[in-house]
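So, can you check this record?

>
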Amino acid sequence: MEKRPIVHLPTTAAYDRWAPVYDHDDNPLQALDDLELSTLLPEFLALLPKSPHKRAIRLVDLGCGTGRNTLKLLSLPNTHITGLDASPNMLNIARQRCISRLDSLAGGNRVEKVDFEIFDMLAAATVPDCARYADAVLSTLVLEHIPLAVFFGTAARLLVSGGYFLVTNMHAEMGAKAQAGFVDPETVTKIRPESFVYGVEEVVSEAVRSGFRIVGGIRERAVREEDLLMLGRRAAKWVGVKCWFGLVFEKV
Protein backbone atom coordinates (compact mmCIF):
# COMPACT_ATOMS: atom_id res chain seq x y z
CA MET A 1 0.00 0.00 0.00
CA GLU A 2 1.34 3.41 -0.96
CA LYS A 3 1.92 5.61 2.05
CA ARG A 4 0.24 8.98 2.27
CA PRO A 5 2.55 11.99 2.07
CA ILE A 6 3.17 13.64 5.44
CA VAL A 7 3.17 17.40 5.89
CA HIS A 8 4.60 18.83 9.12
CA LEU A 9 3.09 22.15 10.16
CA PRO A 10 3.39 24.50 13.12
CA THR A 11 0.92 23.41 15.77
CA THR A 12 -1.56 26.26 15.36
CA ALA A 13 -1.64 25.96 11.58
CA ALA A 14 -2.15 22.20 11.82
CA TYR A 15 -5.05 22.52 14.25
CA ASP A 16 -6.66 25.25 12.14
CA ARG A 17 -6.79 22.73 9.28
CA TRP A 18 -7.84 19.89 11.61
CA ALA A 19 -10.77 21.84 13.12
CA PRO A 20 -13.52 20.93 10.59
CA VAL A 21 -13.01 17.18 11.09
CA TYR A 22 -11.52 17.09 14.58
CA ASP A 23 -14.65 15.80 16.30
CA HIS A 24 -15.50 13.28 13.59
CA ASP A 25 -12.31 11.39 12.67
CA ASP A 26 -12.68 8.51 15.17
CA ASN A 27 -9.55 9.38 17.13
CA PRO A 28 -9.08 6.57 19.67
CA LEU A 29 -7.01 8.71 22.05
CA GLN A 30 -9.78 11.31 22.27
CA ALA A 31 -12.27 8.53 22.95
CA LEU A 32 -10.03 7.05 25.64
CA ASP A 33 -9.61 10.51 27.16
CA ASP A 34 -13.39 10.93 27.31
CA LEU A 35 -13.74 7.52 28.92
CA GLU A 36 -11.18 8.23 31.65
CA LEU A 37 -12.45 11.77 32.25
CA SER A 38 -15.89 10.36 33.04
CA THR A 39 -14.44 9.56 36.48
CA LEU A 40 -11.37 11.81 36.74
CA LEU A 41 -13.19 15.06 35.94
CA PRO A 42 -15.85 14.70 38.68
CA GLU A 43 -13.11 13.86 41.19
CA PHE A 44 -11.22 16.99 40.10
CA LEU A 45 -14.30 19.22 40.37
CA ALA A 46 -15.09 17.80 43.82
CA LEU A 47 -11.81 19.31 45.07
CA LEU A 48 -13.04 22.84 44.42
CA PRO A 49 -14.65 24.97 47.13
CA LYS A 50 -18.32 25.68 46.64
CA SER A 51 -17.97 29.47 46.68
CA PRO A 52 -14.41 30.71 47.16
CA HIS A 53 -14.04 34.28 48.37
CA LYS A 54 -17.80 34.89 47.83
CA ARG A 55 -17.39 34.91 44.06
CA ALA A 56 -18.01 32.55 41.18
CA ILE A 57 -15.54 29.68 40.78
CA ARG A 58 -13.16 30.45 37.92
CA LEU A 59 -12.29 27.53 35.63
CA VAL A 60 -9.93 27.67 32.65
CA ASP A 61 -9.92 25.11 29.83
CA LEU A 62 -6.34 25.54 28.58
CA GLY A 63 -6.11 24.41 24.96
CA CYS A 64 -9.87 23.93 24.81
CA GLY A 65 -9.89 23.05 21.11
CA THR A 66 -13.42 22.54 19.82
CA GLY A 67 -14.84 22.62 23.34
CA ARG A 68 -14.93 18.85 23.88
CA ASN A 69 -14.43 19.28 27.63
CA THR A 70 -15.75 22.83 27.95
CA LEU A 71 -19.17 21.38 27.14
CA LYS A 72 -18.90 19.08 30.17
CA LEU A 73 -18.60 22.11 32.47
CA LEU A 74 -21.56 24.17 31.29
CA SER A 75 -24.02 22.82 33.86
CA LEU A 76 -21.90 24.00 36.81
CA PRO A 77 -23.70 26.82 38.64
CA ASN A 78 -21.86 29.83 40.08
CA THR A 79 -18.95 29.23 37.72
CA HIS A 80 -17.07 31.38 35.21
CA ILE A 81 -15.39 29.36 32.46
CA THR A 82 -12.69 30.63 30.12
CA GLY A 83 -11.65 28.60 27.10
CA LEU A 84 -8.21 29.37 25.71
CA ASP A 85 -6.73 28.07 22.46
CA ALA A 86 -4.17 29.15 19.87
CA SER A 87 -6.28 28.03 16.91
CA PRO A 88 -8.96 30.51 15.79
CA ASN A 89 -10.80 27.80 13.83
CA MET A 90 -10.94 25.43 16.81
CA LEU A 91 -12.04 28.25 19.08
CA ASN A 92 -14.85 29.29 16.75
CA ILE A 93 -16.27 25.78 16.85
CA ALA A 94 -15.99 25.69 20.65
CA ARG A 95 -17.83 28.98 20.92
CA GLN A 96 -20.65 27.87 18.62
CA ARG A 97 -21.08 24.51 20.36
CA CYS A 98 -21.20 26.07 23.81
CA ILE A 99 -23.68 28.77 22.80
CA SER A 100 -25.95 26.08 21.40
CA ARG A 101 -25.67 23.94 24.53
CA LEU A 102 -26.27 26.87 26.89
CA ASP A 103 -29.52 27.68 25.10
CA SER A 104 -30.83 24.29 26.21
CA LEU A 105 -29.90 24.69 29.90
CA ALA A 106 -32.15 26.25 32.52
CA GLY A 107 -30.80 29.31 34.33
CA GLY A 108 -30.15 27.59 37.67
CA ASN A 109 -28.32 24.69 36.05
CA ARG A 110 -25.79 26.53 33.93
CA VAL A 111 -22.58 28.44 34.32
CA GLU A 112 -22.64 32.12 35.16
CA LYS A 113 -20.39 33.10 32.25
CA VAL A 114 -18.33 31.59 29.43
CA ASP A 115 -15.50 33.42 27.64
CA PHE A 116 -13.27 32.30 24.80
CA GLU A 117 -10.00 33.93 23.85
CA ILE A 118 -7.16 33.18 21.46
CA PHE A 119 -4.04 32.41 23.46
CA ASP A 120 -0.80 30.85 22.26
CA MET A 121 1.36 29.59 25.12
CA LEU A 122 4.38 29.50 22.82
CA ALA A 123 4.16 33.16 21.84
CA ALA A 124 2.39 35.10 24.60
CA ALA A 125 4.41 36.95 27.22
CA THR A 126 1.49 37.11 29.65
CA VAL A 127 -1.77 35.25 30.25
CA PRO A 128 -5.11 36.87 29.34
CA ASP A 129 -6.71 39.00 32.04
CA CYS A 130 -9.99 37.09 31.70
CA ALA A 131 -8.23 33.85 32.72
CA ARG A 132 -6.18 35.10 35.68
CA TYR A 133 -6.80 34.02 39.29
CA ALA A 134 -8.33 30.71 38.26
CA ASP A 135 -9.40 28.29 40.98
CA ALA A 136 -8.86 25.40 38.57
CA VAL A 137 -7.36 24.71 35.16
CA LEU A 138 -7.83 21.65 33.01
CA SER A 139 -5.75 20.82 29.95
CA THR A 140 -6.38 17.60 28.10
CA LEU A 141 -4.24 16.16 25.30
CA VAL A 142 -2.42 19.49 24.95
CA LEU A 143 0.90 18.91 26.72
CA GLU A 144 2.20 16.82 23.81
CA HIS A 145 2.61 20.03 21.79
CA ILE A 146 4.17 22.31 24.40
CA PRO A 147 7.62 22.35 26.10
CA LEU A 148 7.19 21.23 29.70
CA ALA A 149 8.49 24.41 31.32
CA VAL A 150 6.21 26.58 29.18
CA PHE A 151 3.18 24.41 29.91
CA PHE A 152 3.53 24.35 33.69
CA GLY A 153 4.76 27.94 33.85
CA THR A 154 1.58 29.04 32.07
CA ALA A 155 -0.62 27.05 34.43
CA ALA A 156 1.16 28.53 37.45
CA ARG A 157 0.47 32.05 36.17
CA LEU A 158 -3.20 31.27 35.63
CA LEU A 159 -3.90 29.68 39.02
CA VAL A 160 -4.36 31.10 42.49
CA SER A 161 -2.34 29.50 45.29
CA GLY A 162 -4.10 26.31 46.27
CA GLY A 163 -5.70 26.04 42.82
CA TYR A 164 -5.95 22.69 41.03
CA PHE A 165 -4.65 21.59 37.63
CA LEU A 166 -5.96 18.53 35.76
CA VAL A 167 -3.65 17.23 33.03
CA THR A 168 -4.08 14.37 30.56
CA ASN A 169 -1.73 13.45 27.74
CA MET A 170 -0.62 10.81 25.28
CA HIS A 171 1.46 8.18 27.10
CA ALA A 172 5.08 7.74 26.06
CA GLU A 173 4.39 4.12 25.04
CA MET A 174 1.99 5.38 22.39
CA GLY A 175 4.16 8.38 21.60
CA ALA A 176 7.08 6.10 20.73
CA LYS A 177 5.00 4.68 17.86
CA ALA A 178 2.74 7.55 16.81
CA GLN A 179 1.98 11.21 17.24
CA ALA A 180 -1.00 13.52 16.83
CA GLY A 181 -2.15 14.08 13.29
CA PHE A 182 -4.97 13.65 10.81
CA VAL A 183 -5.66 13.01 7.15
CA ASP A 184 -6.74 16.19 5.41
CA PRO A 185 -9.88 15.18 3.46
CA GLU A 186 -9.20 17.75 0.77
CA THR A 187 -5.58 16.85 -0.02
CA VAL A 188 -5.51 13.29 1.40
CA THR A 189 -2.19 14.13 3.04
CA LYS A 190 -1.27 13.35 6.62
CA ILE A 191 -0.93 16.56 8.63
CA ARG A 192 1.22 16.51 11.75
CA PRO A 193 1.77 19.33 14.25
CA GLU A 194 4.92 19.61 16.31
CA SER A 195 4.86 17.02 19.10
CA PHE A 196 7.00 15.93 22.05
CA VAL A 197 7.07 12.53 23.79
CA TYR A 198 7.03 12.88 27.58
CA GLY A 199 7.38 10.19 30.21
CA VAL A 200 5.18 10.48 33.29
CA GLU A 201 8.17 10.93 35.60
CA GLU A 202 9.60 13.90 33.66
CA VAL A 203 6.16 15.52 33.59
CA VAL A 204 5.85 15.21 37.35
CA SER A 205 9.40 16.48 37.89
CA GLU A 206 8.76 19.61 35.84
CA ALA A 207 5.45 20.20 37.61
CA VAL A 208 7.21 20.10 40.98
CA ARG A 209 9.88 22.52 39.74
CA SER A 210 7.09 24.87 38.68
CA GLY A 211 5.48 24.87 42.12
CA PHE A 212 2.96 22.03 41.97
CA ARG A 213 2.36 18.88 43.97
CA ILE A 214 0.42 15.75 42.96
CA VAL A 215 -3.05 15.26 44.43
CA GLY A 216 -4.04 11.60 44.44
CA GLY A 217 -2.38 9.06 42.20
CA ILE A 218 -1.15 8.86 38.63
CA ARG A 219 -3.49 7.14 36.20
CA GLU A 220 -2.02 5.26 33.26
CA ARG A 221 -4.29 3.48 30.80
CA ALA A 222 -3.67 0.85 28.17
CA VAL A 223 -6.25 -0.06 25.56
CA ARG A 224 -8.04 -3.32 26.36
CA GLU A 225 -9.95 -5.69 24.08
CA GLU A 226 -13.20 -4.79 25.81
CA ASP A 227 -12.63 -1.11 25.00
CA LEU A 228 -12.78 -1.56 21.24
CA LEU A 229 -16.53 -1.21 20.87
CA MET A 230 -16.35 2.18 22.57
CA LEU A 231 -13.00 3.41 21.21
CA GLY A 232 -13.57 2.40 17.59
CA ARG A 233 -11.79 0.24 15.02
CA ARG A 234 -8.65 2.41 14.95
CA ALA A 235 -7.95 1.42 18.57
CA ALA A 236 -7.39 -2.25 17.73
CA LYS A 237 -3.67 -1.83 17.01
CA TRP A 238 -3.20 -0.25 20.45
CA VAL A 239 -4.49 -3.16 22.54
CA GLY A 240 -2.01 -3.78 25.35
CA VAL A 241 -0.23 -0.44 24.83
CA LYS A 242 -0.40 2.34 27.41
CA CYS A 243 -1.86 5.25 25.45
CA TRP A 244 -3.03 7.73 28.08
CA PHE A 245 -2.14 9.16 31.45
CA GLY A 246 -3.85 11.67 33.70
CA LEU A 247 -3.26 13.31 37.04
CA VAL A 248 -4.22 16.29 39.17
CA PHE A 249 -1.86 18.84 40.67
CA GLU A 250 -2.25 21.56 43.29
CA LYS A 251 -0.37 24.83 43.06
CA VAL A 252 1.50 25.24 46.34
Remarks:
- The longest helix spans residues 28-46.
- The beta strands are 6-9, 57-62, 79-85, 113-118, 134-140, 159-170, 182-183, 190-193, 212-222, 242-251.
- The chain has a mean pLDDT of 94.
